[in-house]
Amino acid sequence: MSVSIKSPRQIENMREAGRLLAIVHKELHKALKPGMSTWDIDRLGETIIRDFGCIPNFKNYNGYPASICVSVNDEVVHGIPSKEHIIQEGDIVSLDGGLIYNGMHSDAARTWGGRRSFPGSGPPDGSNEAKFF
A Pfam family this protein belongs to (predicted)? Predict the structure, then answer.
């Protein structure tokens, strides 16, 4: 596999692809709550990606049927979203997504653990912050 030197414009497009994907993850985290299905998370992620004028780079890659990989608790990685898989209070949720912006790919995963990671839950002093090592 060879690596090609990128032009300043391509580098800027790579940077923008990463910035947009960070926003996707931030919006998904804000929306994440008990009672929603992993399919709901995927639909929202794809909508946000397409609203940016981007293409979800996971969808249909080697037959993968979704735009966002959603893994809950003991699912290792690349969980396939489902209408039947409902997020419960205390679940550890990993979201892996990517997008294509002007031909440049971005890919990132984030994990939020348990009740303390749902926005607005836990004590207001922040003493309930989830920690990962």
Answer: Peptidase_M24
